[in-house]
Task: inverse folding
């Protein structure tokens, strides 16, 4: 299992930056629900040079490699050791209007703008920087596996989105949103075939379009 490090952020602090953040999104692949992003500014004073089991950040990594129970624990550590963090949520309606890639970028921008104070350097997971943003950035492919702040953001975003899907499960219990979180599992597809679509399904997605 690959664990991210804090060396990228530490290098930026040594270059003179004062608030270094990581940003990531979750929810590009699901057939239903919003896309959610988070931006996290970890407290550099709380992170040592070496990883050990006694450190709060020892298990922080890409949210896709964590269990739901572990994420719930890690998100509390992240919140307690962050200078600031925020989320952005872009609805399924907006996804259908502007496409999922643009919606993901919008969610990341929203999470950044929802911070109490903007960072002066931002690591963004993926291929693309956030457009029209007046601060230094670096886009990092697989950043959630390399950069601790991005990994932390992925966990915060994942926990936030899972809570949204749990609420959608209460509205549409036949669809099993609390289990698959809207992703195109066999169980989710079978529910669509049996019951049709809910108002929160993404109408621009190919599988969903078959049942409109």
Result:
């Amino acid at each position: 299992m690959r664990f991210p490090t804090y060396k990228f952020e530490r290098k930026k602090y040594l270059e003179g930056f004062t608030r270094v953040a990581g940003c990531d999104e979750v929810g590009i692949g699901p057939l239903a629900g919003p896309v959610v992003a988070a931006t996290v500014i970890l407290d550099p004073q709380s992170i040592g040079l070496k990883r050990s089991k006694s450190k709060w950040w020892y298990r922080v990594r890409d949210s896709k490699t964590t269990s739901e129970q572990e994420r719930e624990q890690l998100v509390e550590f992240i919140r307690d050791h962050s200078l600031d963090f925020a989320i952005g949520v872009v609805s399924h309606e907006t996804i259908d209007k502007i496409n999922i890639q643009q919606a993901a970028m919008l969610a990341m921008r929203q999470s950044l703008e929802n911070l109490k104070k903007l960072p002066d350097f931002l690591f963004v997971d993926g291929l693309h920087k956030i457009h029209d943003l007046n601060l230094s950035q670096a886009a990092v492919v697989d950043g959630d596996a390399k950069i601790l702040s991005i990994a932390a953001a992925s966990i915060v975003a994942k926990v936030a989105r899972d809570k949204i899907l749990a609420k959608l499960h209460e509205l549409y219990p036949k669809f099993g949103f609390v289990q698959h979180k809207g992703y195109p599992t066999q169980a989710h597809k079978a529910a669509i075939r049996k019951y049709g679509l809910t108002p929160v399904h993404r109408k621009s997605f190919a599988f969903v379009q078959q049942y409109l």
Q: What stands out?
A: Strands lie at 20-26, 35-42, 82-90, 121-125, 136-140.
